[in-house]
Amino acid sequence: MNFLMSVLQDTEMPETGMQGVFEESLSLFELIEKGGITMIILGVLFVIAFYLLVNKLLTIRKAKKDPTKMLDKVTAYVLKGDIDTAKKYADKEPTPMGKMIKTGLNYIGTTSKLDMIEKSIENVAKIELYKLEKNVALVGMISGAAPMIGFFGTVIGMINAFIAISQEEGSVSPKLLSSGIYEAMITTAGGLAVGIFAYIAYNYLVRAMADVVHKMEVVTIEFIELLQNN
């Protein structure tokens, strides 16, 4: 800090000099380019987080399909004793709930133990839940790592800026001082932007997966109650 204050005191501050610096306009691409390799790393992290968000949203949207119609049809066929048709109908539902019901139907007639059927459905539910949660933790990791990477880039940028200032002979140019600092701060802004995006995406995905898990639990309970009553 003392070093920075001494540099500022020794720096010439012509009235038109600083005005020229702030009037200088840069495009977003030019700002990102000045961030160097740190911005490239942050860009890769953003692409990964965005890809995982879109991929998981499509998967969750498919898994959240309302199982009521399928469950009503399966219940009707089970009550008629037509288990084969109930299996075919459940097989048409490529959702976690459809796979769980089909697994439960496969045990009808092979065992009278409901706890065994319930256990088999729970095992299928665990596999489907693993597929849903796969790589979501990576989005959470990016939300925490991106700001730290951006801050690290800023520290490196500030070190380079002060090295450049120390190598200047005579008075330090205001443009050299200010440009070195703002270029270093670009990575902090980039890291925060990627981190905030990944943080919102992660929490949204976690909330959406909780809705799917709730539907899976409801379907399991209703199916077991159906078998208990028949």
TrEMBL record:
Subcellular compartments: Cell membrane; Membrane
Start and end residues of each MotA/TolQ/ExbB proton channel domain: 94-217
Pfam entry (one): MotA_ExbB
InterPro entries, alphabetized: ExbB/TolQ_transport (IPR050790), MotA_ExbB_proton_chnl (IPR002898)
Cellular component GO terms, alphabetical: plasma membrane
Membrane topology: Multi-pass membrane protein
GO biological process, one term: protein import
Segments passing through the bilayer: 35-54, 136-165, 185-206
Family indicated by similarity: Belongs to the exbB/tolQ family.
PANTHER family assigned: PROTEIN TOLQ, TOLQ-RELATED
Protein name as it appears in the record: MotA/TolQ/ExbB proton channel family protein
